[in-house]
Structures are given as structure tokens and as C-alpha cells.
Description:
By secondary structure, this protein is of the alpha+beta class. The chain has a domain at 21-90 and 128-188: Double Stranded RNA Binding Domain (2-Layer Sandwich). Helix content is 19%, strand content 40%. The strands form 2 sheets. Strands 3-2-4-7-8-1-9 form a 7-stranded mixed beta sheet, covered by helices on one side. The chain has a two-stranded antiparallel sheet with strand order 5-6. A hairpin with a 5-residue loop joins strand 7 (129-142) and strand 8 (148-159). Helix 2 packs parallel to helix 3. The radius of gyration is 25 Å and the shape is globular. The chain starts with a helix and ends with a strand. The relative contact order is 0.25.
Amino acid sequence: MSRFALLLVAAALVGTPALADPVSVTRFIAADAAPTHGTYAVTTTPGIDPTSLEQRPWLDAVAHSLAGLGFTPSADTNPDFVVEVHVERQTRHIDRAHPPVSVGMAGESGTYHSGFGMGVGFTLGGGPKDLVTTHLVVTVRERASGRPLWEGRADNTENAHGKRGGIDIAAPRLAQAVFTGFPGKSGETITVK
């Protein structure tokens, strides 16, 4: 393969978007079985305003996932289950030490042979980067007693400036991941791609 072709391949790799980071999911289930059907109402954990515009995408995403599992949104104030949603998002700035592009040159001379070569190296994703880590906790409680029957936790880290780092993508993705294989095995951690 010619040097020019190698440079084209390297340039193409730089422009290739990375795959989404997997979501780590852990579930905990009450000893006397998880809920499998019934009516529900989705809200935030106590102390967080459920009418907040910041919370709405997460509540909607969890409600959509529950409906997909066969649960029914409650039409009154007495649902079978109250589903509490808690979200934490933290952005970290990563300052990388290496520049994204480096150039190296080498020469050789001798009695019979002489030559000169040059190489270009690309550090994929080099330079400063902001990462957003999201922690989603969903707790299904029996409304009458307030007892937790099922809890799912989903964790994910993405590029804060990429599409998957935005709430409109992250909320449905993590909500779907937390309910993957519902109800799951208590205490088991799975990876959802």
C-alpha cells in the first residue's frame, strides 16, 4: 500500500465516529418477587420537583419503557406502583497531554543506500475533552406500603459535546437499558450496548 493510501486511511479513521459507550446496569429485587404488571405513576425522588423541565425527559423515558413492558399508566391517584426516578449528571474536563497529530522524519545514508522517510501519526480523539457521566436510578415501590420492590441503576459516560451526551438521546437510552431483561437477577451487573 502506498504512503498516500495509508494517509487516506488514517484520515478516514480520524473522521469515524466512535461507538456509544456501553451502559452498566445493576438491578435489585425484593425477595418476594418483582412487579410484573399493574398500574403505575412516575415521579422524581423526594425533594426534586417532578414538574421541572430538566426532569421531564427522564420521567417520560422511564414511563415509555414501563409501558413497553406491559405496565399501564395510572388514570387516577391510586396506582399499584409509584416509580421514582433519580438522575445525576456530572461533566469532567479531560486535558490530554499529546497533540492529535504528530509528524516524524528520518533519514539514512551509506555507501550504497540512502533514503528519507516521513510518517504522520494521528492520536484519535486527542486534545481536551469533556465527558458527561450519567447515573440513573429507578425504584418501583408498592404504593400502599411504600415498600421498594425493584430497583435498577444505569451508569454511562459519553462525550459531553457529542449527540449521545445530550439528554434527548441519553434519557431514552439509559431508561431502555435499565429495563433490559426486566426484572433481571438481583445484584447482577450487566452491560448493555
